[in-house]
Structures
1.
Amino acid sequence: MADPRGVNGALVPLSEAQAGAGNTAPSAASTGVVPLFSPAAASRLFIGRVPLTEAGQAAATAAAAQPNPSMRCEPIGILQDWSYDSPVNRITQDEKTIKLEYGKFDYARTIHLDQSAHPANLEPSVTGHSIGRWENDVLIVHTVGVRAGPLTRGLVHSEALDLTERFSLDPQTQALTREFVAADALFFREPYAGEDVVHPSNVPYEPDACDDRSLR
């Protein structure tokens, strides 16, 4: 499954790229575009869209001063990496689990279908602990225990993150929609909600061969 190139993703549609060929790239000052993990990005992308507590504001400001984790081949966040830079993702299922392999940074999540509660004293991790259940044809996934860090562009979460995702497949187009609600009692004054869509890929899934550009 992959985000189609130029649609809801980070890539420019081919028609626009061809139309602008040979032109000098506009500056950030003229376009209003700011670097992804800059302090300005943090303030413009999510601060204000998701009301933050004082602790959340402080964490967002501190995180904005740090380099983009993807430059070190590290996961960005449980939400963003699913469609970040239009990767090819893979989904596999057995009787007890569903595995989501993100096409970036070798990021893999296991959704437990045979559990109804999260373990006590859960040690926070990059992927957290996910349990899933089917509601007709919709897979509902609840995740806790995610290590504090970026959630998506300009927005960071604490270890109190409580994430609910709803995956639904369109039988006609095979488009897979993920709706999500992310709550964080420490950093967010109200939940952050949204959705993304991926489609069947015409190229196979391959583990990410990331180039660590932070070493250059």
Note: Residues 54-64 form the longest helix (11 residues).
2.
Amino acid sequence: MNDIQEKIVENKKNIKLFFELYNGNNNKIIVEADKNRLCQVISNLLNNAIKFTDEGSITVIVGTKKINNNNSNKVIVNIKDTGTGIASEILPKLFTKFATKSPIAGGTGLGLFISKSIIEMHGGRIWAFNNDEENKDDRGSTFTFSLPVKE
């Protein structure tokens, strides 16, 4: 979070960064994963949020959720921004190779594809939506991924 805050300042953006943890009484959430690859995913999602948000906020929300069909816990990570949102024609192919449309994007268009591969290799799932799908007055987008919690 400190690195991301520095990047926001470095890019002279008017963005507030928030972090929220929801895990009942226990603050530790343990997942069995490659720490470097997981950091790569989080960094990619946060860097994209900064890239597409000039002002407003980026909120990282981490919590656990019991999945009823197999009675196991998952960690859920949400990265919500108040940026431009995702173009409707890009949304269905967002996690495929070279899925980019924006001149803002720059880069190779591989970051989300790689992130999806990493999350799926760890037994998780990743998805995204525009915030106005949940509340018509909201701007930006939310990227969410889930991973199995080590029991």
Note: The chain is about 25% helix and 30% strand.
3.
Amino acid sequence: MVESGVPYLLAALSAVFYGAADFTGGIVTRRVAAIPVVLLSQAIGLVLVALTLALLPAAAPQAADLWWGGAAGLAGGVGVALLYHALAIGTMSVVAPTTAVAAVAIPVITSIALGERPGWLAVVGILLGIASIALVSRPTILPAEGGQRIGGAIRPSGVGPALASGIAIGLFLLALAQTRPASGLWPLLTARLASVTLFAAVVTVGRRSLRMPRRLAGLTVGGGALDMLANTLYLLAAQLGPLSPVVTLSSLYPASTVLLARVVLGERLNAWQTAGVGGALVAVALIVRSAG
């Protein structure tokens, strides 16, 4: 285990890039169907990790590392699909925090159950981080009491698919963390192979069109690159440091998305989101301080 704060720095940076990738994807999927966007971004990630592996020194992955990577890719692919479905049918103020908190809870609970014992500063940081995820995911405009009414019907909350999405994303984070540092980025290659195969099958069976405007395709490519960078940083952090604080830091990505929406789109932060961003910064400081 690395006794410095390097894994925590890598995890915090992964949250920044995860949030940026989600922000980019959110802009594109306002105008284009989600499945083509996800397939293109995942395919770009596959190309990038393959090119990166060719430039890096030779790694020594074992079969278990590659299988864990493939399992992570399938879980992550299912998680993304369920997330988009939940956002399409549900209320974002319910979907976003449910998914994010479930995603961080699965690896944290598992790591503690398997014997990991973070210090008290790290525990406080983890709890504060989970609370911050929920706060920063609160919408600027709250839905009407009792649900959001659309076309005379009550829109469902989307809790079911959101919870399933969070569990799948949590399994993605947990599976990647099982790989060894000696495996390098090979688990990410098998993860992307699995997810691209999954979405390609969905597109083929559903006979979905992959066409989109060039500008939106460019944004999708950029989002795919950001997502792969975030995955790389998270993988390195999880291989080097204790899982529970690392995965908590990586899961603070909604703060990055909210801040980008404020800077780029001019969206205002409400009081809950401001408190969430502040809490996220304090959580990072506590977790990093625990490494000292």
Note: Residues 142-155 have pLDDT under 50 and may be disordered.
